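Course assignment 3, question 2. Fill in each field.
Student: A.L.
Task: Predict the tertiary structure for the chain below.
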Amino acid sequence: MRSKMKQWSEEIFAMSSLAFLKNAERSVADKAWHSPNDSADSTVPKSRPGDYPGPRQGELNVTPTKILIHGINYAPELIGVGRYTRDLAEYLATQGHSVEVITAPPHYPGWWVRPPYRSYAYAQEKLNGVTVRRCPLFLHRSGKGIWRLLIPLSFALAATPVVVWRIIRSRPDVVLCIEPTLFSAPAAALAAKIVGARRILHVHDLEVDAAFAVGHLSGGLFKRMALSVERIILHRFKRIVTISDRMRDRLLEKRQLADRVMVIRNWVDLSRIKLVTGPNSFRNEIGLSESDFIVLYAGQIGAKQSLHLVFEAAEQLAAVNGLHFVIAGDGPLKARFVDRYGNMPNVHFLPLQPEERLCELLNIANLHILPQDGAAADLVLPSKLGGMLASRRPILIQAEEGTELYRLLKGVVKIVPPGDVGSLVGGIMEAQTGDHDISGYEAAAAHFARDQLLPRFLEILTAERASGRAAPLPTQDADYEGEALGLAFEPHQLIASK
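Answer field:
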């Protein structure tokens, strides 16, 4: 009786949603959607055409699948989750699948919307074969404290009616939600269940754990409540894909079934990011010579990156002739760092770079540096890692022994303890004055290859039918047997390359 009542309630919800959104389909979709591309003077940055060469022979799925992707980040964001969601969506489109993305205006890094997009407007556009619908959100430049809740909550409130409407109307075969953020995932999961779509969650960041670990949120009771809600939401998905083994372990601690949680690492395009020798235009722009030794950090400039350690190292090494620190990126802490360290002669700031210049930027480095917040070490796995390895420039990272980053890269790159400025300074001086072994970089980067990992993500998306009944997951290829970066494969890694 209880199951019957549950079924009736879901049917009533579906009917009421259709009734409530009946006019939205006509007035919002056909009239009220504002598209930045409609105006003649639009300068919306596009994803680069030709990012994917199109389906190779035998790669196109026999039965095209309708896939709806829902997440707060998407192109034209240049780094972070939005970039990987774009890669996945465009790849799926090239494989013959119908792909729709419901997202927010581009606002990462830095928590501000890039023009000509508007934070308060609904919009629709087509980017490289993917239909993109954007929903408003409230933003604050700090992204801290209560805003850590209000920003994703505002997006969830604005996006939920659109997500429910699109799922019920278009009846996708697969609904893929992206974390961050989980706030609007419950509505997407419920609507997907009503229409019989597969419910999959892609976890880039354990946002609840990380927010408390780095101090964005605090409070014991509040934390317990947040973790309980998170656990309930996670159980609404049939499959969870995450980017690291330790994040998978954390998900299992949240009472997820082991056979539901898979690992696929964030990828890098090895055809674009590679070792390039010769003159580098960035050195000319900064005013540095080819003989200067450059320590490069490229990416998000926020609390989790612990960049204050890099600047403290720069202060201690200010008297070293020819040693320079280049910080390329954006984020909520950039203005503060520029104010404090911008006048130092050995510190240089660059903005985020477009994708066509990313390879050249990474090749400016004599040493890549990857600082880490020890408290959040296993809650996120830096997505920049693949690009750093692919550039085949020496790498210095901070990682605690026993963390996944340490286990992955032990014996491949130089590793020093997190939170220790002295060991960071020592590692930089050692790299400047001595040879650095990069013999393992090329093989390590191959395990992050986009051309291997995106097809395996597609296999996960299409491994089960839309009815939700489990089908066998793809088996491990012979090429994936054995060890990667010194670690043996576990059963859940049959899809994942390390």
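Instructor remarks: Confidence is low (pLDDT under 50) at residues 8-62, 465-498. The longest strand covers residues 293-300.
Grade: pending
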